[in-house]
Write a structure and sequence with these properties.
The protein is built from twelve helices and no strands. By secondary structure, it is an all-alpha fold. It starts with 24 loop residues before the first helix and ends in a 5-residue tail after the last helix.
């Protein structure tokens, strides 16, 4: 028997692409970005409509979570970078056809806006708060004078941020599961639902909780419509996209997606919110926590399942 020894370097790390190159950092960043987008969108929307006193939690209190979510999300994104010292190069160019460029510049704009918004409402949490320096008071007076303009900018960039979290994935043509235009609106709707749930969790005003439960019901309905439409599109498309849909229709991600995302993250909280609106005694924390859990699982499952789907079989 003649033996041959084959020496190859193909199994060395980073020579061939690994199946899962995106891990927990990316879905966490996508979730926190969508959450911040939802919170800031509703804060701006109701301020523009002159309802900051009717819904004070949404406009003045919940936005304090947005900068925290953005910072943690950016830290997770930074941790995922291979060459961390070169992240600044994203800000040396503006590439209109690059989702990464859109995301980088959107985060660069909306993060300071979220801090400014919190600074304008800091007395909501600390009534005796006073700025020590005159230039800070003058800056506050300037932004308060143009707070309506700031609200419009915040709402527009919150929508861009929410959609971008989905477009970041859908731009990868090599992954059939991600290569759909539905992901942008779906992730935006999921972020809005999460933002509404945060307001429900933080509010102690019954009218405000009821309003945001109604909003969340509408958004959950939109999410379900988009999910059904996405799978219909996959099943009517090419073989690889049919196989990608199969990951959730009898494949390895079926149980996780339909139980954690659809049933626990959408249908059950929607049922609980309907019961609450109809004046059944339902703890407001229950549907809100379920929605946040479902929103987080949506990102994790799509990021991991998308890396399994491919063109070559």
């Amino acid at each position: 028997m003649k033996e041959e020894i084959i020496v190859s370097g193909r199994m060395n790390q980073m020579i061939d692409p690994h199946l899962n190159i995106w891990h927990w950092e990316i879905p966490l960043y996508l979730f926190l970005g969508g959450l911040a987008a939802g919170i800031l969108f509703f804060a701006a929307l109701f301020f523009i409509n002159g309802k900051e006193n009717t819904y004070p939690t949404a406009v003045k209190r919940a936005p304090f979570l947005a900068p925290i979510a953005l910072i943690i999300g950016l830290l997770a994104l930074f941790f995922d970078l291979r060459h961390k010292l070169y992240f600044w190069q994203l800000y040396t160019h503006i590439r209109l056809m690059s989702p990464m460029s859109w995301g980088a510049w959107t985060l660069m704009i909306i993060t300071p806006i979220s801090f400014i918004w919190c600074a304008l409402n800091i007395r909501e949490l600390f009534p005796k708060w006073e700025w020590k320096y005159d230039w800070i008071r003058e800056t506050e007076a300037f932004f308060r004078k143009y707070q309506l303009v700031l609200a419009w900018a915040m709402m527009i960039y919150a929508m861009i941020l929410g959609i971008y979290t989905g477009i970041l994935l859908s731009a990868f043509n090599a992954r059939p599961l991600w290569n759909t235009s539905i992901l942008g609106p779906l992730f935006l709707a999921s972020g809005l639902s999460a933002g509404a749930s945060v307001t429900i969790l933080m509010s102690n005003i019954k009218k405000e909780r009821k309003r945001f439960a109604e909003i969340d019901l509408i958004v959950i309905g939109i999410e379900l419509f988009l999910i059904i439409h996405m799978f219909m599109g996959f099943l009517a498309s090419t073989e690889v996209q049919i196989d990608a849909a199969g990951l959730f229709l009898g494949g390895p991600y079926t149980m996780a997606f339909w139980i954690f995302v659809v049933i626990l993250g959408m249908l059950l909280p929607a049922l609980l919110e309907i019961m609450e609106i109809r004046k059944y005694h339902i703890p407001a924390i229950a549907p809100a926590i379920l929605v946040l859990f479902g929103s987080l699982m949506l990102r994790f499952i799509f990021v991991y399942a998308g890396q399994v789907s491919r063109w070559l079989y």
